[in-house]
Amino acid sequence: MNSSGLEGSSVVVTGGGSGIGRAAALRFAGEGANVVVADINADAAKAVVAEIEAAGGTAVAATGDLSDQAVADEVVATAVTTFGGLDVLVNNAGIMDSMSAAADVSDAEWERVIRVNLTAPFLLTRAALPHMLAKGKGAIVNTASEAGLRGSAAGAAYTASKHGLVGLTRSVAVMYRDSGIRANAIAPGGTKTGITVQADPTAHGPQIVGRYMGNIGRAAEADEQAAAIVFLASDAASNINGVVLPVDNGWAAV
Ligand SMILES: NC(=O)c1ccc[n+]([C@@H]2O[C@H](COP(=O)([O-])OP(=O)(O)OC[C@H]3O[C@@H](n4cnc5c(N)ncnc54)[C@H](O)[C@@H]3O)[C@@H](O)[C@H]2O)c1
Which whole-number Å values give the CA distances from 161 to 33, 61, 119, 122, 212, in the listed order? Predict the structure, then answer.
């Protein structure tokens, strides 16, 4: 067992087909973990599994929309049946909003962003906890956002979803700390990934958010986020529970 404690562990990374999730899946596999690469994009998930296997690691793809309870259950079941349990859950899959201010958010945008960014992590957490409780150990790492810390980083729907994810992180951290389970989050600043924003630059929300973009600093590489995720999941962070770690070149400090 190496010092991270991750060798031979069973790890689920959602959104593992691209960006931060892909980088985290590769890093976990590099630590000797067995990785479930979960993504709505089947080809992307399979490509990351192939990348891990080519490097001598172990991974399996699980595909589907994680905001569907049946898919979330299936992802957890895949980890348990394939790798003998579930030690680490990384709730990383997420989508951007259109930067819309509250008065301009459609029902469809609100429902979808909350469903993918907040409800899916809840569904996966609920499915994962019994397996972690059975082992008396587990780590959950959620990919929140700078938009989980402030009101100037995205639109109303995304900002609410990421603040909600921070709340879920803290609740799980408190409720299960005496059961050996830790829950933490990273709050990425701008990061070079495949995530897309479709915003009308002349609309109220994007205009306001644009005023604050000068503060965000250097955009991170996806792997810089992944390093923080793997640290929080590892035994090196054994007494770190309920934190929201900005990985943002100091944006949160501005
Ligand atoms: N890139 C940034 O600047 C930035 C900043 C702050 C937070 N984040 C957060 O980081 C996380 C990862 O995003 P990324 O930047 O790597 O983007 P990305 O688009 O490169 O990767 C996200 C992955 O999630 C998958 N996904 C999306 N919806 C899904 C669903 N319903 N079910 C299953 N898989 C789904 C996508 O297919 C994709 O592979 C997100 O939660 C995002 O909100 C990103």
Answer: 29, 26, 9, 12, 20
Q: How many CA atoms lie within 13 A of 120 on its CB side?
A: 34
Q: Which residues contact 84 (CB under 8 A, 6 or more apart)?
A: 10
Handedness of CA 128, 133, 135, 139 (dihedral sign): positive
Ligand 1 atom at minimum distance from 115 CA? 31
Known catalytic residue at 176: no
Q: What is the pTM of this model?
A: 0.98
Q: What is the mean pLDDT of residues 94-118?
A: 98
CA of 93 to the centre of ligand 1 (A): 4
Supply the CATH classification number for the domain 10-242: 3.40.50.720
pLDDT digits (tens, 9 = 90+) for 197-218: 999 999 999 999 999 988 999 9
Ligand 1 atom nearest 225 alpha carbon: 10
Q: Is the pLDDT of residue 80 over 60?
A: yes
